[in-house]
Specification:
Pfam families: Aminotran_1_2 (PF00155)
Shape: globular
Family: Belongs to the class-I pyridoxal-phosphate-dependent aminotransferase family.
Radius of gyration: 23 Å
Number of domains: 2
Largest sheet: 7 strands, mixed
Mean pLDDT: 92
Protein name: Aspartate aminotransferase
CATH superfamily of the largest domain: Type I PLP-dependent aspartate aminotransferase-like (Major domain)
Strand order of the largest sheet: 2-10-9-8-7-3-4
GO molecular function: L-aspartate:2-oxoglutarate aminotransferase activity; pyridoxal phosphate binding
Order of helices and strands: HEHHHEHEHEEEHEHEHHEEHHHHEHEEH
Enzyme class: transferase
CATH architecture of the largest domain: 3-Layer(aba) Sandwich
Length: about 425
């Protein structure tokens, strides 16, 4: 890809106009839908407008919430008067080790056997990108397919395409029942070429809010083991599915226990509310065996080269705040309480929305609103209905019908339910 932008010269020293970089030939790219939605919401002057687009936690007054434990950690950091020197290429060591324990479990055999290497990244997005680069760099042509759930976080497709990996999709969500499509996923994975990479949402699937059960995860692991498929976990919402950190890493722990070689992209944007600090981690886990430690060492060395060429070293402030929380038992317990506050309010809003829709006798069934989990809900509203919600009711949500339930509160949930009732009855 980079080679395509290099200015070429012919043997006699003259340029080849057919291969030279020419900015005039670059077409304009489409506006990112989410950021376009944010801009439209901010431009709306209505005092009734409702933002259900951005996947960020909001309090009862629709305001960003700084976690109390993060406030305490920030005070500790400021009082320590730390300097602003560069971090190592891999990032803050005490953050990396704590992030490992969080996603794999403190008692993980992979950690004790030194089969894990970890790098601090630019949030979960940077972790997915770093993992994609690693796979792209060290697999032979033709590149393996990357299987991504349909639907998924839109940037998954974009990242893997950017690093030169071909993308395919597996069924995940049944629109008729608004439930997880285990059968469709299993059929797709059973026919995937050996060595394919499968992107798995560790918990609180974005955008559907639908997760496999533990038994379903075991079936997914079994078919992936049989077909020699490579798990690529994206763990962006640990703590938002069940409300408990130790519950939400079940899938990752189970796959590791089954002896998979795998990678994990981890974000602390949501569960610590460190959105703009871009705190994330990337973890490689080698499969058990006599050469597992040397494999891990070699992978870490190559990740260092990739990280060095991309960002040199990651930012320090957010990692320090996360590290303080992760490594202090008292603060960690307070963090768990904060997570219950956030996940609990979201669950409450799900119930309130369902109750309002039932009260209005809105056509259709709305059990999926409370059956889904995490920050998001796939409402089942179509694009035409979403656009009327925006134009008539000043409600801003993704065109797919996904809402961020965290954007609902006791002040706007009835209003939103009335808006939904209206478009369901009047817009097909």
């Amino acid at each position: 890809m980079i080679a395509n932008l290099v200015y070429q010269e012919s043997m006699d020293g003259t340029s080849d106009s057919n291969t030279r970089f020419n900015a005039k030939e670059i077409p304009g790219a489409p506006i990112d839908p989410l950021y376009g939605l944010v801009a439209a919401y901010e431009a709306d002057k209505s005092d009734k407008k409702v933002d259900l687009g951005v996947g960020a936690y909001r309090d009862e007054n629709a305001k960003p919430w700084i976690l109390p434990v993060v406030q305490k950690a920030t005070e500790i950091y400021n009082n320590a008067k730390k300097d602003h020197e560069y971090l190592p290429i891999a990032g803050l060591p005490e953050f990396n080790s704590a992030a490992q324990r969080l996603v794999l479990g403190a008692d993980s055999v992979a950690i004790s056997e030194k089969r894990v290497c970890s790098f601090q990244t630019i949030s979960g997005t940077g972790a997915v990108y770093l993992g994609g680069l690693l796979v792209s760099q060290f697999t032979a042509q033709p590149r393996p397919y990357v299987y991504i759930s349909s639907p998924s976080w839109p940037i998954h497709d974009q990242i893997f395409a950017t690093v030169g990996l071909p993308v395919r999709h597996y069924p995940y969500f049944r629109s008729d029942t608004k439930t997880f499509d285990l059968e469709g996923m299993m059929q797709s994975l059973s026919s995937a070429p050996k060595g394919s990479i499968v992107v798995l949402h560790a918990c609180a699937h974005n955008p559907t809010g639908v997760d496999p059960t533990k038994d379903e995860w075991k079936k997914i692991a079994a078919i992936m083991k049989t077909n020699d498929l490579f798990p690529f976990f994206d763990c962006a919402y640990q703590g938002f599915a069940s409300g408990y950190l130790s519950e939400d890493n079940f899938a990752v722990r189970y796959f590791v226990d089954q002896g998979f070689q795998l990678v994990i992209a981890q974000s602390f944007a949501k569960n610590l509310g460190l959105y703009g600090q871009r705190v994330g981690g990337f973890h490689f886990v080698a499969e058990p065996g006599a050469n597992s430690q040397s494999t891990t060492t070699n992978v870490a060395s190559q990740l260092s080269l990739l990280q060095r060429s991309e960002i040199s070293s990651p930012p320090i402030f957010g990692a320090q705040i996360a590290s303080i929380v992760l490594n202090d038992p008292k603060l960690f317990t307070e963090w768990e309480t904060d997570l219950l506050t956030m996940s609990g309010r979201i669950k409450k809003m799900r119930k309130c929305l369902k109750q309002e829709l039932d009260r209005l006798q809105t056509p259709g069934t709305w059990d999926h609103i409370v059956n889904q989990i995490g920050m998001f809900s796939f409402t089942g509203l179509n694009c035409a209905q979403v656009m009327v919600l925006r134009e008539r009711w000043h409600v801003y949500m993704a065109e797919t019908g996904r809402i961020s339930v965290a954007g609902l509160n006791e002040h706007n949930v009835a209003y939103f339910a009335s808006a939904v009732d209206d478009v369901v009855r009047t817009v097909q």
